[in-house]
Design brief:
By secondary structure, the chain is mainly alpha-helical. The protein contains 6 helices and 2 strands, in the order H-H-H-H-E-E-H-H. A two-stranded antiparallel sheet has the order 1-2. The longest helix has about 30 residues. The two termini are about 20 Å apart.
C-alpha cells in the first residue's frame, strides 16, 4: 500500500526531501572542497579513496556513480591517484574486461590522515544535536537511501510490467 505523504494542494518545496537533501549537498561540497585546498589531493579524490577503503566501490564505474561524475572525469581522477601511488588497477580474474581498483598502503594512509578535516566539520555542524538524534538521522538517511536504491533497481521491471 502506497502512503501519500505529499499532496499537491499542501506541497511546499522547503519541506520536500529532494530540496532538503540537494540544498544540504550544495552547501557541504564547496565547503569540503575548501578544506582540501592546501592538499595535493582534492575532496573528490579523498572520497574516492575512502569509498575504496570502505568497500563501497571497487571499479572506476562504481566511483563515477558514487561521486556523480562522468566516466571521463572519473578516469582522470583515478589516473591522478594511480600516478601518486595511492591506487592500483588490476584486471578482474572473473571478467578480464573489468578493471578493479584497490588502495595501496600509501593510499590508505593518505585517506586516514585527511579524515580529521571532514570529521571536525561534521562534529561542528552536529554540535547542537544529541548523540541519539545523530544516530536517528543516520539510520533514517540510510533507510531512505536503501528505499531509493530499491525503487531505482525496480524501475526497469515496472516499465516492462506496464507494457
Amino acid at each position: 500500500m502506497t502512503k501519500n505523504y505529499y499532496k499537491v494542494d499542501t506541497f511546499q518545496s522547503r519541506k520536500a526531501l529532494g530540496y532538503l537533501i540537494r540544498r544540504t549537498a550544495n552547501l557541504i561540497v564547496p565547503h569540503a572542497e575548501a578544506l582540501f585546498a592546501d592538499q595535493e589531493i582534492t575532496f573528490s579524490q579523498w572520497v574516492a579513496l575512502v569509498s575504496l577503503r570502505d568497500g563501497l566501490t571497487n571499479t572506476c564505474a562504481d566511483i563515477a556513480r558514487h561521486l556523480g561524475h562522468d566516466s571521463g572525469a572519473t578516469t582522470r581522477l583515478i589516473d591522478q591517484l594511480e600516478a601518486r601511488g595511492l591506487v592500483v588497477r588490476t584486471r578482474s580474474q572473473e571478467d578480464r574486461r573489468v578493471v578493479k581498483l584497490s588502495l595501496t598502503s600509501e593510499g590508505r594512509a593518505v585517506a586516514k590522515s585527511l579524515t580529521p578535516r571532514i570529521l571536525e566539520f561534521w562534529n561542528d555542524v552536529l554540535n547542537d544535536f544529541s548523540s541519539s538524534e545523530v544516530t536517528t538521522l543516520i539510520e533514517l538517511l540510510t533507510r531512505l537511501l536503501g528505499a531509493i536504491e530499491t525503487e531505482l533497481a525496480n524501475e526497469p521491471q515496472k516499465a516492462r510490467s506496464a507494457r
